[in-house]
Design a protein that fits this description.
The longest helix has 25 residues. The protein contains 2 helices and 18 strands. It folds into 2 domains: 219 residues, TolB, C-terminal domain (Neuraminidase); 33 residues. The structure holds calcium ion (2 copies).
Amino acid sequence: MLVRDMNLTQTYHNGGGMAVGPDGTVYLAVGDAGRYGLLQNHDRGFYPDTSAIIPVAPEGPYYAMGLRNSFGIAFDPFTETMWGTENGDDSSDEINLVYPYMNSGWNMVMGPSNATALARIPGYQNYTYSEPEFSWEQPVAPTGLSFARSEPLAKFADSLFVGACNTGTLYKFTMNERRDGFAFASAELADGVADRGEPMDEIVFGTNLGCITDVEVGPDGLLYIASFGKGSIFRLAPAGYAAPVPAPQQDPSLPLYLAAGVAGAAIASAYLIMRRKKSPA
Ligand SMILES: [Ca+2]
Ligand SMILES: [Ca+2]
């Protein structure tokens, strides 16, 4: 069994974002599952293995804790650091650079902290609170996220793509030089917070995509965006992109299939022409 039992989890806030780290470790994000968990910055909690990012293969100590819920984690191919989305309540969704042993603060703080909230976070041995790298005051329900390090998408090497469910938007963030945060051109977003009503043109890359659930780079280096809302998978490719021609097949029967296909198509075309000729003008 790869994933160990989740103790008494609910059917919501169970996250499920997964990623494979640079060393091959498989990580799983699990939300608070609506429970009074041990890892949610309460003085006391009852349930283990919720509100955390857990190395499941091989198993290890919680990579991060204090999460409300996350639908997406991904590794920066350049720095090999983990990034993740986190879903807030009525306010504040987050994007985090997820340092090892990070405490994201839930449920004492969601979004940027303040002194009062920080004072309420109990200390966990080895785990340290870290501020979000970006947050939306008005929730957009961020989900999957992906860096694009590929030849076809080379112009986006410094970008992080983030999908959202509520807004049906694909967001694109520009990494800063150290790749430990984002660079913004607009004064409104420079504080790392999309406050209510602030323009987000700078980070809006694609719209009307329905509830996006996942964003991944395929083996062909293109970006794939899965939409639950549209029941579709979208693909981001450069204008005029032509898929590489597949290597020649070794299967000797293939030309026969192709020939049969061509013959079939020819017959179908002839049939259509015949039908057209027969139909009244
Ligand atoms: Ca946080
Ligand atoms: Ca702002």
